[in-house]
Write a structure and sequence with these properties.
The protein has 302 residues and is α/β, with parallel strands linked by helices. The protein has one domain (5-301): Alpha-Beta Barrel (TIM Barrel). It is built from twelve helices and eight strands. An eight-stranded parallel β-sheet has the order 1-8-7-6-5-4-3-2. Helix 8 links the parallel strand 5 (153-157) and strand 6.
């Protein structure tokens, strides 16, 4: 494509994946990396997880306000790190997950984001899929209603169902059914190129079923060739990692399908983000540069 990608999307990245120390609340890394991101005009959006330290959060917010970047609030680490499960059939556990995520909306709003994203939990041992599904729908409706009172949206990201994260909601046909049942105007779905191979879905299978509910897209990679490799599973290694499924070709096909389903188009600028993570011994800036090069090449071929 000859036209600038910025006409059709807001180019973002998942901050805490690119800078893993930020996930551990290393305040120095958080501020240095947010500053570097704000100075990088390639990115017009950034996905941040909660920043617990009040002063660090204030300083990060000030830089982000100056930058003009769109800020997206990512609560996936809260769910995974806290082992929260919105589809738990144990009422107390389900209510705990909803309560924590409801409080997370305050941080989402404070940082200037208009949506909060997270994932479903695992299917618990001894629970039936139908009961877990009903619990998931109920939780999402409650969270959407809480978010609506703050004029915010809720985004559920689909994940693998039987490889690494093993979330209840994975394949896109299933996710579309969930969105229908949640039935809230402020609810949407996020689909990730990284997860498509883990779910056995190509671009058409992953994107067409959710075209009416898609509000956010991720671009990334995965690896399942060798379980002893640190890249194994849903670790979001760089594009083109030997033995991995996603490179420029797959990224190009994904972008074409985003246009085909109408997610990208005239007058639209949804957030499309890299989710890439340095492997042990790799450098965050180089891995991000790899993603930019892959995106530039893929965009030229769309």
């Amino acid at each position: 494509m000859q036209e600038s990608m910025y006409k059709y999307l807001k180019m973002g990245f998942v901050h805490f994946m690119a800078y893993p120390a930020a996930m551990k609340q290393d305040n120095k890394v958080v501020l240095e990396s947010v500053e570097a991101s704000c100075k990088d005009e390639y990115f017009t959006a950034i996905e941040l997880m909660r920043i617990l330290d009040v002063e660090t959060r204030r300083k990060a917010k000030a830089m982000l306000d100056q930058s003009g970047m769109t800020v997206c609030h990512a609560a996936q680490p809260v769910v995974l790190g806290g082992k929260l499960n919105i589809n738990s059939v144990d009422g107390a556990k389900r209510e705990e997950a909803v309560s924590v995520l409801t409080k997370e909306l305050d941080l989402c709003q404070e940082m200037g984001s208009d949506r909060m994203a997270f994932l479903a939990g695992r299917l618990e041992e001894g629970a039936t899929f139908d009961d877990a599904w009903k619990a998931c729908v109920k939780s999402l409706q409650e969270l959407c209603d809480a978010a609506a009172r703050k004029k915010l949206g809720i985004t559920l990201e689909t994940f693998d169902t039987d490889v690494d994260k093993c979330a209840l909601v994975g394949k896109s046909k299933q996710a579309a059914k969930l969105a229908q049942q949640v039935d809230r105007e402020n609810f949407g779905l996020m689909v990730d190129l990284s997860h498509a191979p883990l779910l056995g879905e190509g671009p058409a299978e992953a994107l067409r079923p959710v075209k009416d509910y898609l509000v956010h897209a991720h671009l990334g990679n995965c690896y399942t060739a060798d379980k002893n490799n640190p890249a194994w599973g849903d670790q979001h290694p760089r594009f083109g990692l030997p033995g991995s499924p996603n490179g420029v070709k797959e990224l190009t096909e994904w972008l074409r399908m985003l246009f085909e389903i109408g997610f990208l188009g005239e007058g639209k600028q949804p957030v499309v983000s890299f989710e890439v993570k340095p492997l042990p011994g790799e450098n965050s800036e180089i891995v991000l540069a790899n993603a930019k090069r892959a995106m530039n090449e893929a965009w030229a071929k769309v």
